[in-house]
Design brief:
InterPro entries: HotDog_dom_sf, MaoC-like_dom, MCH/BMMD. By secondary structure, this protein is an alpha+beta fold. It has a single domain, classed as Thiol Ester Dehydrase, Chain A, CATH 3.10.129.10. Helix content is 17%, strand content 33%. Strands 1, 2, 3, 4, 5 and 6 form a 6-stranded antiparallel sheet that branches. A hairpin with a 2-residue loop joins strand 4 and strand 5.
């Protein structure tokens, strides 16, 4: 061995996991996967407006928003929904290689969100439905603001492989 070279075990990138991967059978109803809190800025809202092509003045015109009963421009609802994306949490790391698809999403927008609001989103498993070689994971998706108000409530469904192959 050359001087100054430290011998290490061989490194396998496929075993470099953020968290230990679980199978469908390892998941439990009431498991919660949280996303880091995020404070929305005008830059976030502007970037989403550009990507979504949603040019409704409620999202960018302060005076229009005020004339129509809003205290400020309203962040796009779909942008708030995006905060519930499974990849915003550790959920995809936990399910690892058993993931097949994100099969369904629904939500209700309960309160307005404005630039400057801090959002706290999470996914909580509410049902696990075995289907032979696959299993359906149902989660409640929620987003709260810094005042503790529930601003979005919804549901996601994910299809995973099971060990019953």
């Amino acid at each position: 061995m050359e001087p100054g070279v430290i011998k290490t075990k061989s490194f396998d990138p496929s075993s470099y996991l953020v968290v230990p991967a679980k199978t469908f059978e390892d998941l439990r109803i009431s498991d919660v996967f949280r996303a880091p809190s995020r404070t929305l800025t005008d830059a976030h809202a502007s970037a989403f407006q550009t990507v979504s092509c949603d040019n409704h003045p409620v999202h960018y015109d302060v005076e229009w928003a005020r004339r129509h009963g809003h205290t400020a421009p309203v962040v796009h609802g779909l942008q708030v929904l995006a905060f519930t994306a499974p990849g915003a949490t550790l959920f995809p790391h936990y399910i690892g290689d058993v993931f097949i698809s994100f099969s369904e999403v629904s939500c209700q927008f309960l309160k307005e969100v404005h630039s400057g609001d801090t959002l706290y989103s999470s996914l909580e498993i509410t049902d696990l439905i075995p289907q032979g070689a696959t299993g359906l994971v149902v989660t409640a998706a929620t987003v709260h603001n810094q005042r503790g108000e529930l601003v979005l409530s919804g549901q996601h469904k994910y299809l995973l492989r099971t060990q019953n192959v």
